[in-house]
Amino acid sequence: MPAACDSVLEDIEDIVSAQDLKPHDRQFVRKNVFPKVRKRSSQQSTQIDDDPPSDSIIPGVQKIWIRTWGCSHNNSDGEYMAGQLAAYGYKITDDSAEADLWLLNSCTVKNPAEDHFRNSIKKAQEGNKKVVLAGCVPQAQPRQDYLKGLSIIGVQQIDRVVEVVEETIKGHSVRLLGQKKDNGKRLGGARLDLPKIRKNPLIEIISINTGCLNACTYCKTKHARGDLASYPIEELVDRAKQSFQEGVCEIWLTSEDTGAYGRDIGTDLPTLLWKLVEAIPEGAMLRLGMTNPPYILEHLEEMAKILNHPRVYAFLHIPVQSASDSVLMDMKREYCVADFKRVVDFLKEKVPGITIATDIICGFPGETDEDFQETMKLVEQYRFPSLFINQFYPRPGTPAAKMHQVPAAVKKQRTKDLSQLFHSYNPYDHKVGERQRVLVTEESFDSNYYVAHNPFYEQVLVPKDPVLMGKMVEVNIYEAGKHFMKGQPVSDARVYTASITRPLAKGEVSGLTEEFRHTPRNGTNWKAHPSAEIPVKTSFSPWMPSQLPWQQEGSGLKILSVSLALLAVLVMVYYGGMKTEL
């Protein structure tokens, strides 16, 4: 009998003769392959269980807990990821303890949010949970020490979350951080018609663009979301129409800067809004997201007309950040305080009752006492009903982190002083006794009321009557607090159903067309987007997840080691190294 090493093989393919079927042919000619198993003793009983155990490494059967931090854009990403995972067979759970895998969707705006994110990673590891990371923190700084060895899904790769979860469950580390491009042009992100699970079945969050045109010195989000990339108008309108067909009665438009929408694709925000307004059914409402002052200035007239539309909330979030021009210059905000005032004054005049929300950063590097007093005067002048006050936190890698910092005690005191000013006035006291039309969409945090909003997107608490949910009703305002009013439904008023069809049940997957209902679990190899980098693995496996129907075709991971390993396994199958029976 010849020794096993009598001859030298120049290539692994030398094992196979010319007359043998090629591995590719053997892989795809077979329709069913049944592994030959050893016969069990007759005394042993075999129990058949349709449901694999919770610790099974078979993808698509595990329970997944999803935690999202940050803005509505991030929340929309989290809904899309939940929908795709549920459509593939995973069970989305609200109980982190029973979950097999934690999907942590992060925010990089402020230090506390990242601290919570980091602590959650540690807690998951201590509980022996599989972990997949998403959002702006790992996208902006994937090489941080506490992210080593963990799977990451990039902000533009959320349509591939199933693949990353599958590989993570198998014990691999996969990182997909590439940008989506079409002929070299950066796209807005993943498709808008992906399956999703809305946190609130009555509210659809639509990202109209990703990234921005600014380069603010304090902002870390820019590192993650990049430059402006807008979705085409027709795709956004189609998404809105699909949402209304699924019982949605309120749409939120979101992005890092909605005012900059369309500048990269030859259109603008008002053009989009007029198209969307045409698609909104009677009783449903549209809420516009945050816009920076520079990009709304040239559209003031059109924006005023749109904000006066009965199916658009008279609400706009315009961050000022500081009332000092010198501080704004150091922030590279590309506007002055006079620009901000011009926008606010114009809209207040042309859109009576409009709600203007704004943001302020306390203690930005170089901010003097005089600078801060200018900000205090601005708040006193406009008495913003919604004011987001943020103590400055230097974010690693940003220019502001290298500037001369304001002492921590001073930042803390300025934040406290501004908060006291904000709480010194009640913006809704004069509205007690009014009769208002409100749309009921949510339950209050204490579960004692339903939450509705009037045409100015002011919060109105109404009795917790299931008949009211998803309805447009008239109420009498009988009480006002700092952040809300309370209303009693008018008995003789019409209750209007805002949704044109029955809303989806809580946790039900949206967008489950036939394409997604018949997702294959095997039979094709995992295909990567051509712009995505090669996954990093902590252990090796030649088997990759199947191509999902919502991913782009014509893509492939060109990993030589994977190809050779797959070929080796097939050769072993052919020569009896792995006994199979056709």
TrEMBL record:
It is found in: Endoplasmic reticulum membrane; Membrane. GO terms for molecular function: 4 iron, 4 sulfur cluster binding; metal ion binding; tRNA (N(6)-L-threonylcarbamoyladenosine(37)-C(2))-methylthiotransferase activity. The keyword Transmembrane helix applies. Its EC number is 2.8.4.5. Residues 198-429 form the Radical SAM core domain. The chain crosses the membrane at residues 559-577. It is a single-pass membrane protein. Residues 62-170 form the MTTase N-terminal domain. The keyword Endoplasmic reticulum applies. Residues 429-491 form the TRAM domain. Belongs to the methylthiotransferase family. CDKAL1 subfamily. Catalyzes the methylthiolation of N6-threonylcarbamoyladenosine (t(6)A), leading to the formation of 2-methylthio-N6-threonylcarbamoyladenosine (ms(2)t(6)A) at position 37 in tRNAs that read codons beginning with adenine. PANTHER family: RADICAL SAM PROTEINS, THREONYLCARBAMOYLADENOSINE TRNA METHYLTHIOTRANSFERASE. This is tRNA-t(6)A37 methylthiotransferase. The lineage of its organism: Eukaryota, Metazoa, Chordata, Craniata, Vertebrata.
